[in-house]
Design a protein that fits this description.
Elements (H helix, E strand, L loop, with lengths): L11 H9 L5 H7 L26 E2 L4 E5 L2 E10 L2 E8 L3 H19 L3 H18 L4 H11 L4 H10 L23 E8 L2 E9 L4 H7 L2
Antiparallel strand pairs: 1-3, 2-3, 3-4, 5-6
Length: 218
């Protein structure tokens, strides 16, 4: 369903922001953001019980932390609803890949401006490897990758673009824009070594100071 449909009540500014991400339909939006697709019952908050499945509207009130484990992606964040803060954990959703996609758009754009074509292509190969590892790609991601690759491989990108039915020619499309909210990680993975051998790995916040680490880490 087209997002310009009146029932979505999206402002022109929001539509423009979504179009920069090549999101024009409800299906592409649901593929891009980690929403739940199924419709569940919504009992009164006072009747909620442990392990109940409910649906409710809430406001995200914390940074989103995402990490990869194998082919899975886990994202965690807090939401506010009914004057309570709930911790939400979403498995196998595309937050981590949004991070990679936006980092790729930023780096490729900057590298092309500086005529660093080798590093731009290397970044696109890294993103392609992540997509291959996941085993799927959204239409928005596919469009963005083709647009990023088109300056150095215009003919094959145009051929793929038309075969996929993406509309007007590649050269008439706007250059992809990155979302600054998906450029930095809230957590990084560090290796724990003992006598030069890796004994384990830890996920730590990027804001963790040396002093705090010495107090909190095992």
């Amino acid at each position: 369903m087209d997002l310009k449909d009146k029932q979505f009540k999206l402002t022109p500014k929001r539509l423009e922001a979504l179009e920069r991400l090549h999101i024009t339909t409800a299906e592409e939006l649901l593929s891009y953001y980690p929403f739940r697709y199924e419709v569940l019952s919504a009992p009164d908050f006072s009747l909620w019980k442990e392990k109940d499945k409910v649906t409710f509207e809430a406001e995200v009130v914390s940074a989103v932390r995402s990490w990869r484990h194998g082919k899975m992606t886990t994202s965690s964040f807090d939401v506010m609803a009914y004057d309570h803060v709930f911790k939400v954990t979403i498995f196998n959703r595309p937050w981590a890949r949004n991070l990679s996609m936006n980092q790729t758009i930023k780096k490729v754009s900057e590298d092309f401006e500086q005529m660093k074509f080798n590093t731009a292509i290397a970044q696109m190969m890294t993103l392609t490897n992540e997509i291959n590892q996941k085993g799927s790609v959204t239409a928005g991601e596919y469009k963005t990758l083709l647009l990023l690759l088109s300056p150095v491989s215009p003919h094959i990108c145009e051929e793929i673009w038309q075969r996929q039915g993406f509309g007007a020619p590649v050269y008439t499309q706007s250059w992809p824009q990155y979302d600054a909210n998906f450029l930095t990680r809230d957590e990084v993975e560090i290796a724990v070594q003992l006598n030069g051998k890796v004994k384990g790995k830890l996920m730590i916040p990027t804001t963790l100071t040396r002093e705090t680490a010495q107090e909190e880490l095992p």
